[in-house]
Amino acid sequence: MLLAAAGILVALSGFAAAYPNKPIRLLVGYPPGGANDLVARHVSAKLGQFLNTQVVVDNRPGANGIVACDAAAKAAPDGYTLLLAGMTPLVLNPLTYAKLPYNTVVDFTGITAVASGPFVIAVRPDLPVNNVQELIALARAQPGKINFATVGTGGSTRVIFELFKSAAKVEIRYVPYKGGAPAIIDVLGGQVEAIALDLAPLLPHVKSGRLRALGVAGLRRSPALPDIPTISEAGVPGFTVSTWFGVFAPAATPKAIVSKLNAEIVRILGTAEIREKLTAQGAELETSTPEQFATRIKAEIDKWAEVIRKSRIRAD
């Protein structure tokens, strides 16, 4: 029996040593141009160099990231299909959808956290508001007439929207989109007045003046937008929410491969090149062991379950 176990360990170590010997797919549950996609493309390019293989970003948008998560959960657990995902599909979807084709805790192995970042509330520059308090005043003067672009109906940006609506005591409407990029396009095009979204895809438009950032929904101001106050500073005390991203594999992926991927991605995040690219987009780099990441995911589900219950948010 001991010999058999030793043989299995040798086989697995050989498997990991040979890994990878073909291209790797990195699934992303949103269209190109959003925060998930931007992070995935920076990480995948460097991971391909480090592993001496091609790492292809495979965008599978749809249903708040459900399409990509379902594909990843059902993929062969051989390390050749990975998933870059975050709070919406893995924490909030299980709490807002009555039924999902995957179970976050059971169907995935977390490889490492990659980055976190704040949400930002921004408006079209022609909207006559310059700060959060002026937005609240306008919303109270015109109840139900200000539209917020959000991603999906039960994801993180919808949660931000509902929390802001409740905390500010305003009647505003949400308009769901399949991803951050199409949501931004409609705000820029004048179809929607405001947006609640991750900082990364909004940042170039804020810097160019095509959008006006009013507040950052984090504990502190973002180094990428040091002049923009937190929403708590701007008059909605205690309003702090941030998002995060990580890399996952199907649950039965061999531990040796998970460990190899963890080591390489952590090494990538330690390079000056990736650090500069991600921080320039307002992201804060994070890393973890697979065990730490699993503990964090469970804690996040417990934390947000209470928020969702109180806010009565359900995916439509």
Kindly describe this structure.
With 316 residues, the protein is an alpha/beta fold. The protein has two domains: 186 residues, Bordetella uptake gene, domain 1 (D-Maltodextrin-Binding Protein, domain 2), CATH 3.40.190; 95 residues, 3-Layer(aba) Sandwich (D-Maltodextrin-Binding Protein, domain 2). The protein is built from twelve helices and ten strands. Strands 1, 2, 3, 4, 5, 6, 7, 8, 9 and 10 form a ten-stranded mixed sheet that branches. Helix 2 crosses helix 10 and helix 4 crosses helix 12. The longest helix is centred in the C-terminal third of the chain and has 22 residues. It is globular and about 65 Å long. The protein starts with a helix and ends in a 5-residue tail after the last helix. About 3% of the residues have low confidence.
Could you name the key traits of this structure?
12 helices, 20% strand, 10 strands, D-Maltodextrin-Binding Protein, domain 2, ten-stranded mixed β-sheet, globular, alpha/beta, 2 domains, 316 residues
